[in-house]
Specification:
Chains A, B: It comes from Cardamine amara subsp. amara. The structure is a homodimer. By secondary structure, chain A is mainly alpha-helical. Chain A has nine helices and three strands, in the order αααααβααβαβα. Chain A has a two-stranded antiparallel sheet with strand order 1-2. In chain A, α2 (about 55-65) crosses α3 (about 75-80) and α5 crosses α8 (about 180-200). At the A-B interface, α7, α8, β3 and α9 of A face α7, α8, β3 and α9 of B.
């Protein structure tokens, strides 16, 4: 079958809100987070969950130049570079914002809670990338990508792997190598779509019966996030 | 149910090759067109199907500056502007190339046969757009988009329509209007995904049972086309 129900090792979790926004359909736009008041940070970071690492708070506050309490696209890029994630493509930044934004917020921006979830997720994808970037070149070839997905319990069809990798082909036809940015993007897409599928295949049979509405609602968010 | 099996009126057809490339999975990269030799054009246009309108041939040949017999991304943009389709976004150009390219060709480029198919498809989407752009403003609002899809037999979930339209929201929250470019993109995505779904729902029940492999193989092409 296409994936197992063994959850060790597993890919980093998607935000609760992303699962919810897909599940509650029409109510997506009315979803609101339950913020936990923080005891340990300055008033400007009162929205951060308790025990958020100070470095995460610092990267957020340094990047939030207009002190809006939210990060827009360019502010998020700044915050991530403060955190050692330089050179993440606009495409990936937008995709991350789309997945991690509060669905109750009509603007494409991240608040503290969403940023912490994103930050933790990136750290986990980073450690997976480093595990498979065996020669420490900062690049992962297609074999390593296949291995990484396999060990995350994603047995992807060859065609799907070919298509994902083909995005990063420079046209020379030589062996394509993925940087962390590309790996992150592939991983989030595969993880996201697989989670959607698993919701409809609770018995892990490898098959799911979907209505047209559910099918379209599951997929369109992944496509439109590339605005 | 989500869509009817009445085919009048219907959305412009996707290229045969796009349906085939999805169906034959692993063989996608080995798919090859059966070109029909043309009797009526110069040797440089021998690859054009018979009865291709001379304007189409002219727009192709004028844009194919390096006489390669193929249009790359910028050449296609040029060819389309010769044909009255100015200002089509890079994103849409890439999406069109991805859908209309010969899957047997590892490069993202269009030959004469693929260009003719694309050209005919654009003409049909254009006439649909004009029908719903009632005030001839060159813009279509979300209500008109919903009507257009409805009359094309696509009963889309509200969430899906909201998400598609939200791509074109400038953030002011005012009524979003779609230009032809945006309408074309929405239409191609909805048409493409619905065709994929219908292949798995031959009885038009509105439900389809998909394996994980099929599910992923159906969707990834729509996502990766936005490289």
């Amino acid at each position: 079958m296409a994936y197992s129900n063994a959850y060790e090792p597993s890919a980093p979790e998607l935000p609760e809100s992303f699962v919810e926004q897909q599940l509650d359909g029409e109510n997506r736009y009315h979803y609101a987070y339950q913020y936990q008041p923080s005891q340990q940070f300055s008033s400007s970071s009162v929205m951060f969950p308790p025990e958020t690492h100070p470095d995460i708070v610092r990267s957020f506050e340094s990047a939030d130049r207009d002190r809006s309490g939210f990060l827009d696209e360019s502010e998020l890029r700044q915050a991530l570079s403060f955190s050692g994630y330089e050179g993440i493509s606009n495409r990936t930044i937008r995709f991350l914002m789309f997945i991690y934004k509060n669905p109750g917020d009509s603007l494409l921006r991240l608040g503290p809670k969403e940023y912490v979830e994103l930050w933790n997720c990136l750290a986990q994808w980073r450690s997976i990338f480093d595990r498979y970037d065996r020669d420490r070149s900062g690049k992962m070839n297609s074999t390593a990508l296949r291995d990484a997905f396999f060990h995350l319990d994603y047995m992807l069809p060859t065609l799907v792997l070919q298509l994902m990798i083909s995005q990063f082909d420079d046209g020379t036809g030589k062996n394509v190598e993925l940087c962390f940015d590309s790996f992150l993007e592939c991983g989030m897409i595969v993880k996201g779509l697989t989670e959607k599928f698993k919701e409809k295949d609770p018995g892990y049979t490898g098959y799911a019966t979907l209505s047209y509405d559910v099918f379209m609602s599951m997929i369109i968010p992944f496509i439109v996030s590339y605005d």
